[in-house]
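Run log, item B.
One chain of 280 residues. Sequence copied directly from the ordering sheet:
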Amino acid sequence: MMVGTRKRASYDRFGIIFLAALLGSPVAWAQAASGVGIAGAPSSGPRGEAFVKGGSFRMGSDYGGADERPARQVSVRDFYIMRTEVTQADYESLTGSNPSEFKDGAHPVERVGWYDAVAYANALSVRDGLQPAYAIDGTSVSCDFDASGWRLPTEAEWEYAARGGLARRGYAYAGGDDPARVSWYGGDSGGSTGPVGTKAPNELGLYDMSGNVYEWCWDWYGSYVGQGLADPRGPAAGDRRSRRGGCYLFNEEYLRPSYRSYEKPEAAFPITGFRLARRP
């Protein structure tokens, strides 16, 4: 069975070993280094989402895949992002359904398409008393980035957060150089998703930015263009949406923060989930 872009053939259920003891957390250091919790910006929102202080960074890689090049300098403004991927329990409590292959409330929801993710974002915004970010008319979706509600992160926001924002230390993966410490991936997952938040976090206290499931982003997938861009949001149109982060099936090459993937927005595979962001 073929699943997603750059696919591997099979996925088998296996028992997941819970990683109970994290080998230290850089969260407190990250808050001090990045300015989280100062200048009137709380370190966490009402759902525990992480505040990410905006800044500039080098997006992409001159040594990765062709679609990661050329690396370019971009900037993003302040935003909040969920510390974990949306779980099956989260998704089912709001939608009344759980489409996931690997049923466990503590695991990330998967088998959700891009359209499912934006619909969930709007529904969560309504429940939280926020202004929905999306105008949805069938498969036509537009985003008001100034709205207070939940939305998918852009690729630039996602990569900036995965790298650790202003607190980044230049790790190979989101949170460290040892993939087994920071991610559920092909080397340790046993062919299944894992419970969210049980591997080590990155510098901003974000979990599973490398591995577990691919995460939908807002952008249409396309080539990088331009330098010095502020809040880039990808091409104006396309036929595939971007995904980031690698997943439980694949090796460490797919876990790099700059690694890019894509899929048709209606595609719902057991390697793809999402987390949400919003403006402060």
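Observations after the first pass:
- The chain has one domain: 41-278.
- The longest strand covers residues 214-220.
Flagged for discussion on Thursday.
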